[in-house]
Structure formats: structure tokens, C-alpha cells
Write the C-alpha cells for this entry.
Amino acid sequence: MNQRVNSVDGVAKTVSEVLKDKKYSIDYYQREYKWEDKQLAELISDLTEKFLHLHDPSHKRTDVSGYAGYFLGSIIISQKGTEAHIVDGQQRLTTLTLILTYLRRLQKAEATPEVKIDDLIYSESYGQKSFNLDIPDRADCMSGLFEHGEYEPLEDDVESVRTLVDRYSEIDGLFPEALRGPALPYFIDWLKDRVQVVQITAYNDDDAYAIFETMNDRGLKLTPADMLKGYLLANIDEGAQRVEAARVWRKRLRSLEDRDEGLSSDFLKTWLRSQYSTKVRRRTKDARPEDWDRIGTEFHRWLRGDAARIGLTSPDAYHEFVTEDLDFYARKFEYVKASESASDPGSPLRFIRFNADQGFTLQYQMLLAPLIVGDDEASARKKLEIVARFVDILLAWRVWNFRAIDYNSMQYSMTNIMFGIRGRGVEELARRLFDYLSKQSETFDSNDELRVHQQNRRQLHRILARLTDHVSVESGLASNYLELTGATGVKYEVEHVWANHYAQHSDEFAQESEFDRRRNHIGDLLLLPKQHNASYNDEPYSSKRPRYYSQNLLAASLDPQTYERNPGFRRYIERSGLDFRAYDSFGADSILERGRLYREIAKEVWNPSDLLLVAGIASNE
């Protein structure tokens, strides 16, 4: 018995062997499910591209057993009696479960021969389902995704639930058309029986965490970054130059890792893509990966193959590549990452935070693209601000027009914009991006029916926070963006001015669906602290309005007291010419009028001419 307690097993297992009829828990101190859209996109791309390279339509299903496998890395399990706890690998196993859940539903939609995978997702005992990742606070969410393909997060749901819903909703857009139809069962067979992980099982927590620390802290897992480092240093002459390059590499990448685990790898991909990629995979069925895609999955191999093209032709060139290029872009990347959590509302780089708050990870490659080694600090910051403002405007326009802003939807277009701004000077950069925005047909003026729904609630919360913050700042008050978005600990919610009672408005609408549509219009929305929103919820407008006076200025502008007692707000109205007014009653037409006001505020917040002003160019040139 004691010998077993102190033993450690390590064995390669297929996805099926790891998940079928198994139960895994995570300890309370484990981190939330954190994977972002880019990590999901890369995993699906890796898996599907590997399979498509192996598959031929003439093959039989049994031929899949001879396909080359794919290695997903290692997981570490602490086996406590009959309970298996995940020490390392939660993110990958969770994502695999989401993909399998999606594939289960896709099989039914495509009416292809069914591959039985339910037992990789859940097991059943005495009529009760429980999921392979047996995590209680995610159970309702996973059940909703499994049964219906959707789940509406509750206000009190943990962060993991919201991330699960976001990632699941993105899988359909990432899954290639080439695998929908006859090839689907072949892919599922390959995924469950040819994709492998190494499962390391310890029989007490001390051993499990010692293994985890050894593999991660002592570098026994050779990562693509390790292999790239080895290749670059091997091509630098021994002696002082190699020592210096090793020191710079270690200093810069360690600083990034200290900020966030995995950030050094993200930096290497972002840097190499922003400066050296030339093509991105087209959005067509039979398109093959280009260099941008390869950098995302195997940057160490890509660089070895393209070394001469990017100028690595001598030991001195390799030395300069590390000590000057990597050093410069790593410092800028770290500065960008620091800016995304900055609390200074007056910082010119606050737009990086705004984009990060919308979950837009594609901004990083775009921010680095125009930078040139040797840019002075002022020029570099202007470039960063111009690009961040551009992205901010484009995202706002897309949200306003019900367009997706997720990684997959915008990857191709944003990468091609990145190619066009690489290495540009401040003025040329501003003009190019301003011209791009000038050609867009979807702006704030192209949609006067913006409304909140399940998919855009989080994004619209951010839009309302920016509008509310702008009114406050322009009226001479302190910025309240961080408070409105929950960064200070106060939880705000989207508040409907109208209570959800159709009967109170049946004289204005023949159908309840028409009432719902108008009630969800942006003109009927405010941001209020959760505690107040809950207490106001069912009250009529006449009772709510005096209470709005004590809230943020955008909410307070519904009440006449605001115009009597706030001279800074009155000056803003005079200066801007915006049509603010108080409402004694708030009917259907009032919502549309209020919506038009919001649109005009939005034009102030997201103004393309600001790009030119940052560059010192008059907007009428």
C-alpha cells in the first residue's frame, strides 16, 4: 500500500482513454478556465490542419487507425483514492470537452454516421448525468451547452462559466467547412483515438506538485521558445556575443513570464508575425496555411526555414536579431501589456485597455507592426496610440452594427491591415488608417436600431461605459470608466428604463415582441450599480427618474434637477450642441430620441479625425 502511495505512473493515452467514463475534479485553489479566443483558434487549427494533411476522401473509416497521431502535451493527475484531481492540464481538457460537445451536436446537424462520443463528455449513474470534468459551479453551463448548444450566464456565475460560453460560441466559426459532411466521422475517430497526451499520475499531492514544478520551473519541457533560443544562439559566435545574446534573451523573456505565464511565447508569435509574416491563410475551403499561420503553431521551425529571407545570414546578423530586434520589440510588447491594465484615465494609451476589455487580442500584432527598431519614445507612443484608437473605433462600429469582433471573424482582415502598416512613419500610419475608416460603410449612422441581446450584452456594457464616462469627463467630473466596468469592485449592470411589463405599454404596441424590441433599444439602456438596478427593476419610470439623479450623469440627465444643479454639465451641452433633455414621461418615441442622442455622443467618443490629430495633421488637409 505505501509503495503505491509513493509511486508515479507516466503513460501515453489517447483522448478516448483519458476521458471515457472518467471523472476529474480540480481543487478549489486551481485557477479559473482562462483560455482566450486565440488559444482556442490555434488548437482547432493545429488539429484540423494535421488531420486534413493525412486524410483522403478515398480512405475507409478503418484507414484512420493508420493515420499519424498528434501529441497534445502532458497532463498531471493526483489520484486520491477513487478521486482524480487535475494538477496540470485543466485548460486543455476543458477545451477538448467543449470541442467534443460541439462535434456531438454537429454530427446530428450534418446527419453523418454517428461516432459515439457521449461517454467522453459525461457518464450516467442512476439516471443522473455528471460530466467528465466534475466541477460543480460549471455543471449548469455544461448541461446547457450539451443539451441546447447555448447557456445564458447568470450574474453570480463564476468567471469560468462566462469563458466557457464565449469559447463554445466561437467553435463553429473556427471549424473548417472541409470537415463538415463526409469527413466529419473520420475526424472524430482520429481525434478520440489518434490524438494523445502523456498522463502522469501521482498518488499524493506532494508528488504531483513536485512533478509539476520540476517540469515547468526547471525547464524539462522543451518548448518552441527553448528550441528557437537554441537555434539562434548556436548561430552566434562563441564568446562575448553569444553570452550577451543569451543574457538579453533571458532578461526579456523572464520579465514577460513574471508578468503572466505563457506571455513570452505570445510575444514571440506576435513579434514574428508583426514584422516578418507576408501572407495569412485565405478564408476558403481548400486554403493552406501561410507563414502567418505557421508562426502561430511552429515559429521555431518557421524561422529556421525563413532565416535567410529575413536577413539572418551571418553570426553578426543573428546577434543583432536578439540583442537589438528582440530586445526592442519585447520592451514595447511589455509596455503594451502593462497599458492594457493601466488605471490612468488620461493616458494616451488608454485605448489599448479599452480594446483589451473587449477581449480583442489581435490588437497586439497590429500595435507592434509599425514600430521600427530605433524609433524614439515619442514616435513609438504616437504609433501605438494611433493604432489603438483605430482598433477602438472599428470595434465600436462593428458592435453598433451587430458585427462580430471575435478572433476568428476579424483575423483575416486585421492581419491584412497589419501587413499594410508595417514600418510606417507616424503621419503615413495615421493617413492610411484614417483612409481605411473613411471607406467603411458601417458606422454609427448606418444603424439606428442598436439593441441589447444575449450575445452582445457584455460588449454593449463596454459601449455604455464609454458613453457614460465621456459625459462625466466632458462635464468636468473624474473618469468613472473603471468603476462602470467593475474594476473597482462595484458591480454595474445594464439597466432598462422601462420595466419588463408589456401591459404598461400595450397602448403603444400591438404585439409583445414589438415592445421587447423597443425596450432593448440602446435608448432605453443605462448602467447602474447592481444593488440599485435590482431595487429599481419593476418600478414605473415616474418612480425611477428622481433616483436616477443620484447616479452617473448619463442616467441623471433624465431628471430635470441635473440641468439646474450641474453647471459643468450645462457647459458641456452648450459646447457640444447635443440634444440632452429631461423627460417627464418616457414613451416609445422617447427611447428613439434618446438613442439618437447616444449615437451623437458615440461620434464624439469614436472620431476617426482623432487619428490625424495625434499625428499632428489637420483633419481638413
Residues 57 and 183 are 7 Å apart (CA to CA). The mean pLDDT is 90.
